[in-house]
Amino acid sequence: MTALTQAGPAHAVRGRDRRDPFRATPLTKVALGFTLILSIFPIYWMIIIASRTNSDAVDVPPPLLPGGNLGENIQRVLATEDAHFLTGLLNSLIVTSTVTVSVVIISTFAGFAFARLHFRGRNLLLGSILLTMMVPLQQMGIVPLYQLMVNLGWVGSLKAVILPYLLNGFGVFMMTQYTQQAVPEELVEAARVDGASTLRIWWNVILPAVRPGMAVLALQTFMLNWNEFMWPLIVLTPENPTVQVSISFLTAAHTTDYVLIFTGTALSVLPLIVVFVAFGRQIVGGLMEGAVKA
Amino acid sequence: MSVNLHTQRADPAPPPSRTGRRHTRPPNSFWSRLDLKAMPYFLISPYFLLFAIFGLFPLVFTLWVSMQDYGLAGGEASFTGLDNYTKLLADTDFWNAVVNTVGIFVLATVPQLVLALLLANALNKRLRGRLFIRLGVLLPLVTSVVAVAIVFTQLYGRDFGLFNWLLDALGVDKHIDWQSAKWSSWTAIATMVDWRWTGYNAIIYLAGMQTIPRELYEAASIDGATPRRQFWSITLPMIRPTIMFTVFVSTIGGLTLFAEPVMFASNRMDGGTTGQFQTIAMYIVEQGFRNFDYGYAAAAAWLLFVLILLGVAINYTFVRRIGGAK
Fold first, then answer.
1. Region annotation Disordered: residue ranges (chain B) (predicted)?
2. Hey, are the CB atoms on A292 and B211 less than 8 Å from each other?
């Protein structure tokens, strides 16, 4: 993998030669256009159904344009008491924001320590984090984790879906790499010589430099956590769900009411789409940067 | 996954020389030494504390739980050794879940990674509106799994689904009940997985491809190598580590597949009338949290882990051969 990183940023220069190997053929363009349509269609379809009536949804041929019933459908979702949709939406916002803020802070601290501080056992501890990243902890430990929640009296409480997600090996790994690349060793040494304490170095030297990395980690954590399904489904109650659990109950209880289900689904996806549209460039950049180093 | 552990000094830093410089705080050597020695551990302690409670403890304790029988009245458990494991290995329902999981995994992953490679190769060309196209192929990843599953389940509906309508329009007049058979339900679930993850893998491959020196392609072009030849002989071998990474991630994700098949079964754990698409993760939840046989579920979780290790090992040897490895 080091060979990859050493290969250098040759891609940065896009030549002007028209016959170069990087020319996009018409076939490539058509294929890409087709891929884009396939990527967007299911989401578009969700909006079509969410803005129409149930009789439209089973029309032949199917409707291909959104209708005018969205507002009414949203009201119907919110009025469906057994889904506790509003509670779910609110809970998801609380859980996801708490997890995101905590993961970013925990990872930035640990990343600083692993990247720029010297202590006994550093490589061993970092290695152990990498190793555990390969283990699907959620699925593997699900039974004892549940028993632990029973003993703590946390079943049905949001604490049960917040605390286990605060340990995020990927976050620590990412912030370690980011700090290594964003903060020169000499800068930390110089601050030490000037008598700055470790926390002061973190605040004045590290934090300003790694802010872009923190933003990317925050975005990824937010999207990942918003999606979480298996554990919340087990440990939360139908009366106090996250939004994913809420729409899963909506689906189970109203199997044929597509409009209701799709409207709830669209609302559950909305925060993600908003984040994606606002920060798309950073998300793509973060994914690609992480990929090369992975 | 390589944090480069050896690029920096691994030995402890030389004591920072404070001599002759201005002291911005009193030279309290006890506190500054404590700061140097103990602060690093303090900074990493939140992660390891949480890991010990919510990661390591459940993982290790699963082994203990898996050797208990919770089937007794009153909810008491008794130690039964490896009984749960022998029972599981003779349980046709468990093996059914294993076959389903592996089947869906293969059906989803192979086309997904091949398509992602082709897509990445296309994205690596000079294109206008690059950012827009990349955002477009990543949009499915942003959509939540449950939402994807709900939309696709409706698209695969027997009577009013778009897929059956399309088949009908193409002259294949069969109203397929996608949930009812193994092949059709596996296909439906595999397309959900692929729709969501192909773009992500393509972006990861693209990142790998962009680190390949451009001169390699130019030299190959001059030597008369076709684009296809260049793809096989330059691109594929050069991004092998990236392929390895995506295969690992897909293996772990695929073998723990849960949300898509659950939603395809209308939020039930049985995976259809005869369990035709029940995955191992669903089986674990069904045993542990519907039948409350914790021990049995924990044993299944360990067997799932063994399966994941096996899958990773097989894929590792397989991917090493890609593009003519030595």
1. 1-26
2. yes
Residues A91 and A32 in one domain: no
A117 and B39: CB-CB below 8 Å? yes
Number of domain units in chain A: 2
| One domain, residues A35 and A169 | no
Pull the structure tokens for residue B204.
């990861």
Option in B50, B148, B284 nearest A167 (CB): B50
Distance from CA of B98 to the nearest CA of A (A): 15
Please give the C-alpha separations between residue A206 and each of A123, A184, A285, B15, in angstroms, as whole numbers: 20, 10, 21, 21
Other C-beta atoms closer than 10 Å to the C-beta of B99 total 11
Choose among B144, B203, B267: nearest Cβ to A287. B203
Q: Is the pLDDT of residue A9 over 70?
A: no
CB contacts, 8 Å: B217 with chain A: 20-22
| Among candidate residues A6, A39, A68, the one where a domain is terminated | A68
Which residues of chain A lie closer than 8 angstroms to B53, CB-CB? 148, 163
Dump pLDDT digits (tens) for A237-278: 989 999 999 999 888 888 778 888 889 999 999 988 888 888
Residues A149 and A178 in one domain: yes
Does the domain formed by B88-320 have CATH 3.40.50.720? no
| One domain for residues A186 and A64 | no
C-alpha distance from B99 to closest chain A C-alpha (Å):
18
Residue A5 lies in a domain: no
User: pTM for this structure?
Assistant: 0.85
Residues B318, B326: Cα–Cα separation, whole Å:
13
Query: Contacts of residue A188 in chain B, CB cutoff 8 Å?
Result: none
- Residue keyed to tokens 């659950």: B262
Q: What is the ipTM of this complex?
A: 0.83
